[in-house]
Structure formats: C-alpha cells, structure tokens
Amino acid sequence: MGELSKSSTKKMNEITDEMSECFLRVIEKDFSDIDFKILENRLKIKYMHESHSAMFLDGRKGIRIIVDHGITKQWSEINCKTEIKIFRKCGMKVTDYTIANEVYTYVIHREDKFYKELEKIPDKEWLNMINITKTISQDVLGQIEKTAANIGFTLEDILQLMAENSYITEIRSKKK
Fold it and tell me: 111 with 123: CB under 8 angstroms?
C-alpha cells in the first residue's frame, strides 16, 4: 500500500513538473524573472479557455487565488500543484493551499515589503472592512457562499477577503 502511494506521488510530481515547465516555456525561457501580472493574465486566459472560474483576491496576507474547476478532485489537485510549482519556479512563495472536490485555493506572497506594511494595521480595522461588501446581490452572495463552502470557508471569510481586496486595490491605485 505504501509503495502505491509513493508511486502515485512520484507520478503526480512528474505530471505537475512537466505541466508547469510547458506553461512557463510558452511565456519565457528564463522564468525566474516573470512578473506576477504576466502569470496572472496567462492563468486567467487559461481558466477562460477551459471554462473555469477563478477569483484573485489581494488580501492582507497575500493574493488568494480560488479556482472552481468543476472537475474531479484528482484534476483539481494536479492543477493546484502545477500552479504552485509555476509560482515557485518564478521565485514566489506560496502558502495555505487547500484542495477540495471541485475547487482549490492558495496564497501567493509576491511583495514582502508591501505585506509587512499591511501587517501593521490592527486586526480590528481589517475585520471592520466587511461592511463594504453589503452591496452584493443575493444571487451573487449565494454563488460565493457555495464556492466558499466547497473549500472550507464561510461566506464571512470570503466577504472579508473581498473587502481586503477592495481596500488594497485602493491603496495600490494611490501609490501609482
């Protein structure tokens, strides 16, 4: 039994290595310098062509990527691990990943200095931001809650991430 799982883990690593290499080679030969925005745009195009939905939420701990693949857990695992390898090969730290039946999620840390500054904001201020999202329609809230439940989040967790994303987007636009 142990040998079978070692074999399947090895095969999974081979598949995800090959898929991540192919994805990066299309963009650039030296992928250690690929910018996050380029990766983000390429992934969004990939999701669109494969009819998958995704959310990129810039939160206080990094950019949380949530992907609803609508396929088997095994393919979600392959896709999640491939994407994690893509970001790591480009020199970015990836944490907090969860693979569920049809959805997976992970966090990218791409600007340590920026996120260190965000850590100085007290938790209470972050938690008060959820009020910003009260303008979302009930239909959309239902879809968000369904996706959240699929990956072990509550609706409040996702709304908090959305509020943080809105705040951070505002900060970034002021910096430009």
Answer: no
**Closest Cα partner for 172 from 90, 59, 54, 96?**
59
Separation between Cα atoms, residue 12 and residue 82, nearest integer Å: 9
pLDDT digits 0-9 by tens, 114-172: 888 888 888 888 888 876 556 778 888 888 888 788 788 888 888 888 889 988 988 88
Q: How far apart are CA 98 and CA 136, in angstroms?
A: 26
Find where tokens 């260190």 sit.
Answer: 116
pTM summary value:
0.80
What token pair was written down for 62?
């990094």
Residue-wise over 45-82: b if at least 16 C-beta within 10 A, else e?
eebeeeebebbebbbbebbbbbbbbeeeeeebbbbbbb
